[in-house]
Design brief:
Length: 297
């Protein structure tokens, strides 16, 4: 899964520090991230890249002087975290910022496909934080402009003291078994045409287990039993923390698809499921867990 980068080490302790030439710089324009083209793929640029490209006609104001202990949301880069000692910094740019030659603004799901597993996690996590910061430039209580916290990872209103922490929304995903069949579905908002699993956000006032039962019933009209925890993963692409479960069909297997959420939902025989790559998502891990014949104890 995307967070499994052993033996590499992800250190997300809050710090304030100066950037070094070999540190990564995430430039975010409110919806997309600036990446450097590398053949048919991309890499996350470093401070040194911007400096060298600047000598070829690309000017990036403030590079080398971007860190600031009282950083606001615009005009400066600030430290986020490091992986194996290589720091990631975030810099917010204007929506109309034109990418230089060799660079491109791309959707954040692009991070799922970067060849370097540490850049997958680093880029996606940085984009998660960038999205959170971009949504909180002004205080929701008094409307004043906010600043970044200097003692912890937070956004603070200097007028009323309102403190905002990163948004992490709980999500459940469930692999429902019916003998040698697996309940698989396709969400109407998912650009990937492959079938995955039933999932959804946890509602106010319910537990993870209650959410799992509710989501399967709402989206597929199916009741489940023997719900078992499988594992969890951060999912930066929807500001989520996903809890994965396995379960068994309880009663009638007739699927009643929720058409506003799913474009398809059906029982799929184990032998008809093609292999899924498990290096990114817990959904793929759950499907592979079923496909390869594992039976919960």
């Amino acid at each position: 899964m995307i967070h499994e980068i052993f033996p590499h080490k992800f250190d997300n302790q809050f710090k304030i520090q100066e950037p070094k030439p070999d540190d990564f710089l995430i430039c975010y324009n409110g919806s997309k991230t600036l990446l450097k083209k590398a053949g048919d793929n991309f890499v996350i640029p470093k401070f040194a890249d911007f400096a060298s490209d600047g000598s070829a006609g690309f000017s990036f104001a403030g590079v080398g002087e971007l860190a600031d202990e009282k950083a606001d949301h615009e005009g400066v880069a600030h430290y986020l975290f490091n992986i194996d000692g290589k720091a990631y910094f975030l810099h917010h740019v204007e929506k109309d910022f034109a990418p230089p030659a060799g660079y491109e603004f791309v959707g954040n799901r692009t991070f799922r496909y970067l060849p370097d597993i540490t850049q997958r996690l680093g880029g996606a996590t940085a984009a998660h934080l960038a999205h959170w910061e971009s949504l909180n430039k002004f205080c929701g209580r008094c409307g004043s402009a906010t600043t970044l916290g200097d003692k912890e990872r937070s956004i603070v209103c200097p007028e009323c003291g309102n403190t905002i922490y990163p948004r992490i929304s709980p999500v459940v995903i469930v692999a429902v078994r019916n003998g040698d069949k697996l309940l698989m579905a396709h969400n109407i908002d998912n650009p990937n045409p492959r079938l995955f699993l039933i999932s959804g956000f946890v509602e106010i006032g319910e537990s993870l287990e209650q959410a799992a039962h509710r989501e399967v019933l709402e989206e597929a009209g199916i009741r489940i039993k023997n719900l078992r925890y499988f594992g969890s993963q951060p999912w930066p692409f929807s500001d989520a923390l996903i809890a994965g479960f396995t379960a068994e069909l309880d009663g009638d297997d007739t699927i009643r698809r929720q058409e506003t959420e799913l474009s398809e939902a059906k029982w799929v025989n184990r032998e008809d499921i093609a292999p899924y790559e498990t290096d990114v998502s817990i959904s793929c891990c759950l499907i592979e867990n079923f496909r390869t014949g594992f039976t919960p104890g």
